[in-house]
Amino acid sequence: MAVVHDLLPLGESLERSYVVTVRGRLKFRVGSIVYVAFSHDETIMGFAFPKQERAVLVDNDPRFQLPAESDMRFHWVHGALPELDATEARELVVEAWRMVVPLKLSRAYDLEHPDGPGSGGSPDRREVRGPGP
Questions:
Q1: Domain boundaries, the chain
Q2: Which of 1, 78, 96, 112 is spaced 20 to 30 Å from 46 by Cα?
Q3: pTM of whole model > 0.90?
């Protein structure tokens, strides 16, 4: 089960990312762009997600829902935070962050965390992995 406090250190540590509170709701931003937001009761996590892929996600996994009709123009999906495990929630945060930062930052993150969010990174894996596309 994921909780907001598991994700706060990640939101603060990602390059150019910072945590804000807007009307009592926690949000992760890069500049003025919100890429993750939590409901007041911290049970729903809204996050940036590619529009063309969200219907498949929502249709195949009941833990995820589309945003309200008025917000369908945004690249956004809602997830039930208590139903996600902590690793999966961290991966969703990092993938949302990737949508709002330059590719060079995303690639640098991959080099530092070859095993994904929460890993310490290892120089041997970087050599095996090779350069990015």
A1: 4-102
A2: 112
A3: no
